[in-house]
UniProtKB/TrEMBL annotation:
It comes from Methylomusa anaerophila. The lineage of its organism: Bacteria, Bacillati, Bacillota, Negativicutes, Selenomonadales. The chain crosses the membrane at residues 12-31, 37-55, 76-97. This is DUF4405 domain-containing protein. Keywords: Membrane, Transmembrane, Transmembrane helix.
Length: 98
């Protein structure tokens, strides 16, 4: 029982640390709008968000299946989300930093 509690506590700590770092970098994005630091902070935020999503993958799957229990609805929505994500990724690669 103690091992499970420690594991859960470590998970919560890891999450709080990631959320805090993510918040700091997002606040830095707002402040550094005209700075050369802005693109670097943006890349760091994207990486941290991807890590955050990876850590919560099981929870996201469960919530998605609860929201869309029918498989015929799940597939088009997953495809649409994938296409939108790829479009966002591709468009971000063509951004010009001044």
């Amino acid at each position: 029982m103690v091992k499970d509690d420690n594991k859960a506590l470590r998970y919560v700590r890891k999450n709080i640390i990631l959320d805090s770092i993510l918040f700091i970098f997002m606040a830095g994005l707002a402040v550094s709008w005209d700075s050369d630091l802005h693109p670097i902070l943006g890349i760091i935020v994207v990486i941290l968000v991807l890590i955050h999503i990876a850590w919560h993958q099981k929870q996201i799957k469960v919530m998605f299946r609860q929201a869309f229990p029918n498989l015929t609805i799940q597939r088009p929505i997953k495809t649409m989300l994938l296409v939108l994500g790829l479009i966002a990724l591709i468009l971000s690669l063509f951004m010009v930093f001044e």
